[in-house]
């Protein structure tokens, strides 16, 4: 018969496992495990099996192991994990893509009933329709001010009703009604609250960023650097094109105000002396196509010929 390990031996084994995982993995997801059952957690472990390992435990034990391991190895980046271990949390060590791992974790959510005293994580709306309850159950709806009617011997809800608002505690009446209706409004699973990557800690919202979002944020950063550089006259790569253009404008202004000139300024001076040289003849083309100008030219030519013929007739009439 196998001897069960003592509590001290379990702590030593847990400490050794956590230290080994810290040395092996550089990416860690800190997940909240509120209202997550053991069976659900086991399914999550199976879904992540391969490149990821889920480790749960008491916060005090994890903090102690991390601090001792950091002192033993001289690697202080592990200490960035300590402030994240608050509440009912666990660690997911992974070598795969962090976003894909978080998506897999999000799949394993289980519906849960609205228990009395539970703080609602979302708004709960009771949809209209037949409830299947007999008329004797109308007292529940009356207490909660839900409009109903009797239809074919059963209670029917007339309009959708916002039963519980997000952040409110579930009351006994709301819990009993949702239970009778068979509605399990809440769903629970592991929720990623922080991402640790080789010493750096960031919010899980970063995982939802796309390439377009990154390009937009990078462009915004470049524009801010450029604005700052121009404001303090400090040259940077981002501000260099603007500085060259501004310098060219200043030199051009000096050239126009004085006798000094250079090839680029000569064109501007010529334009200011005689703008008509740079005028471009614009021919209006109708939307129908390009045949209209040619047709108009032919009509004008015919008109001129007819005028010439009329002048000739008047010049050689009966009075000659």
TrEMBL record:
<dbReference type="GO" id="GO:0070180">
    <property type="term" value="F:large ribosomal subunit rRNA binding"/>
</dbReference>
<dbReference type="Pfam" id="PF00428">
    <property type="entry name" value="Ribosomal_60s"/>
</dbReference>
<dbReference type="InterPro" id="IPR001790">
    <property type="entry name" value="Ribosomal_uL10"/>
</dbReference>
<comment type="function">
    <text>Ribosomal protein P0 is the functional equivalent of E.coli protein L10.</text>
</comment>
<comment type="similarity">
    <text>Belongs to the universal ribosomal protein uL10 family.</text>
</comment>
<keyword id="KW-0687">Ribonucleoprotein</keyword>
<dbReference type="InterPro" id="IPR050323">
    <property type="entry name" value="Ribosomal_protein_uL10"/>
</dbReference>
<protein>
    <recommendedName>
        <fullName>60S acidic ribosomal protein P0</fullName>
    </recommendedName>
</protein>
<keyword id="KW-0689">Ribosomal protein</keyword>
<dbReference type="InterPro" id="IPR040637">
    <property type="entry name" value="Ribosomal_uL10-like_insert"/>
</dbReference>
<dbReference type="InterPro" id="IPR043141">
    <property type="entry name" value="Ribosomal_uL10-like_sf"/>
</dbReference>
<feature type="domain" description="Large ribosomal subunit protein uL10-like insertion">
    <location>
        <begin position="114"/>
        <end position="183"/>
    </location>
</feature>
<dbReference type="Pfam" id="PF17777">
    <property type="entry name" value="RL10P_insert"/>
</dbReference>
<dbReference type="InterPro" id="IPR043164">
    <property type="entry name" value="Ribosomal_uL10-like_insert_sf"/>
</dbReference>
<dbReference type="GO" id="GO:0022625">
    <property type="term" value="C:cytosolic large ribosomal subunit"/>
</dbReference>
<dbReference type="InterPro" id="IPR030670">
    <property type="entry name" value="uL10_eukaryotes"/>
</dbReference>
<dbReference type="GO" id="GO:0002181">
    <property type="term" value="P:cytoplasmic translation"/>
</dbReference>
<dbReference type="GO" id="GO:0003735">
    <property type="term" value="F:structural constituent of ribosome"/>
</dbReference>
<comment type="subunit">
    <text>P0 forms a pentameric complex by interaction with dimers of P1 and P2.</text>
</comment>
<feature type="region of interest" description="Disordered">
    <location>
        <begin position="289"/>
        <end position="320"/>
    </location>
</feature>
<dbReference type="GO" id="GO:0000027">
    <property type="term" value="P:ribosomal large subunit assembly"/>
</dbReference>
<dbReference type="Pfam" id="PF00466">
    <property type="entry name" value="Ribosomal_L10"/>
</dbReference>
